[in-house]
Amino acid sequence: NALGRLGDANLAVELLTTDNLARARIIALQLEALNDRRKMLVDRVVVQALSQLEDTPSLADYNAIVLAASDWHPGVVGIAANRLADQYGKPAILIALRPDGLGRGSARSVPGCDIHQAIKTQAGLLTGFGGHPMAAGLAIAPENVTAFRRGLSAALEGCQESPEKTITLDLMVDLPQASMPLLTTIQRLAPFGAGNPSVRLGCSGLKVVNETAFGKTRDHKRLVVENETGYRQEVIWWRGATERSPEGTFDLAFTLSPDDFKGGDSVQLEWVAAREWEPPPVTIKPDFIDWRQTDNPKSKIQNLKSKIVWAEGVTLSSLSALPRHQLSLAETLVIWTAPPGHDIFRQVMTTVRPRQTVLVGQPSPFDNFPAFIKQLMGLVKYAMMHKEGEVGLEGLAAALGHRSTTIRLGIKWLAAQGKLTIYVEEKDLLVLRPEQRSPTEAAATIETILKSALSETAAYRRFFRGANLASLKNATKVGFHS
Known about the structure:
Layout: H1 2-6, H2 10-17, H3 21-55, E1 65-69, H4 77-88, E2 92-97, E3 103-108, H5 115-120, E4 126-132, E5 135-140, H6 145-155, E6 171-172, H7 180-187, E7 201-214, E8 220-226, E9 232-237, E10 250-258, E11 267-276, E12 287-290, H8 297-302, E13 307-310, E14 321-322, E15 332-337, H9 342-352, E16 356-362, H10 369-386, E17 390-392, H11 393-400, H12 404-416, E18 420-426, E19 429-434, H13 442-466, H14 469-475
Parallel strand pairs: 1-2, 6-7, 9-11, 12-16, 13-14, 13-15, 15-16
Antiparallel strand pairs: 2-3, 3-5, 4-5, 7-8, 7-10, 8-9, 10-11, 17-19, 18-19
Helix pairs in contact: 2-3, 3-4, 10-12, 11-12, 12-13
């Protein structure tokens, strides 16, 4: 990473391919020195940026922090911008002004703020730009920085990260379970990155019994935590030496990785976040009423009070039904259409939190490939004719009774068939344009994956229609959210 930012990345290739041990040692020393220089440069940029904000506090009042300096290295401003974004809870752009008259900037954002789209609104002030919702790069003339700061702030109006960050955990574990067998299972999901984030674990009811700073500059922290039974485990808190450790009992969010320093034969817990411990809430277990084999469930449903009917992919003339993204709290939930998957079932139960759940579980007409594609194409054509091609994956998923990932696959298949072009693709929103061209080689592969997804959904619906109530009740138990 440091090589790509400060030097020639080919040196890393030579390190990993050379047969000359002496040469390898020399390169390794060079790389270590370069990485130390990268850390020093980042720290310097952060200090100077914070100094600018201290000297001119009004710079922090904009909806994005935009700073520039002539002695910043363009290869490290992105890392520094990320630190500022984390500290201030808003997007940050740091610009390295160069002798050629152009500034090279790097932007980092926060969840919920599409920095690339915001920068796009200021394209007239820029020489060039590119990126994605969470990070971007740009080139700008120094005299345009002030106008860019103002325009970008206006484009980001109302788009700021909540001061209280929410972390969703993948699994709650007891402290002794954070071990090699669990790590081995987690590593089967690798590699981790932007499209496949690391597995986040949670452990409840811990106390800190010891802590020490470590590292060359003593900026990391090693803690020993203990659970209520007295079991102890070490946790690494990167860049946490200056942070205050929790007092009393707390819940911990962490990731699990091999402890490479000890040869990789043991696990390393890495601190993500902590919160004050709270006793677990009392959970209301909904009563289930099984009308899955009832001949005429509509007449019975009409007599229910304080109800919400969840139905997707069908039209119910005598009942007022809602898709998943329009549901809200209700005493009674009627599940008319069998859910497309366990995840959607849990999501709906968590949203509605019903005291009573009526199971009808009708099959969907769009679980086979021809019917799914025909309906999807009809909805897409309507959007291209009447909505300037804008489609929301969540809305389409509800209209067809499928997951958003399946809808995305369907749209990609239509594009691979030459029937449309995906003009814009950003999270839940797509902008589509009509097209007439020959199919691409990817069409067959996408079709195979799509058919597999449809088959998986159909299989879950069959399970839902035939499963005993105990199985479905267990499926509604939701995980821990911090």
